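== Protein entry: sequence and backbone fold ==
=== Local backbone shapes as whole numbers ===
==== Amino acids and backbone structure tokens ====
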Amino acid sequence: QVQLQESGGGSVQAGGSLRLSCTASGNTYSGVSIAWFRQAPGKEREGVASIWTGSSATHYRDSVKGRFIISQDKAKSTVYLQMNTLEPGDTAMYYCAAKHVHYYADYTGYNYWGQGTQVTVSS
């Protein structure tokens, strides 16, 4: 079992930045894939970025490459999503999720989820 707790959402103007945090607890010592997903009203949920905690290998969807950075602090069991140059299209509920499988860039199969944190970007 893995428990996840997100924080750091909020409202910013376009061009601004936010950093989301996802703190994991439970069975994470052997390495887990952790991903950030987002879901805007009326749209399907999509994977944004992911990391394999064993090696810090990362993956990004094309629309956020160069703007978002996913990283981890192993000592704090926390994964971060630094979001820069935010756009109104980034407005969504953001969730972190985890799975014990190494295929972090495959955004299916994530079976542990946080409660979500809202990000709103105004123009």
Remarks:
- The CA atoms of residues 33 and 104 lie 5 Å apart.
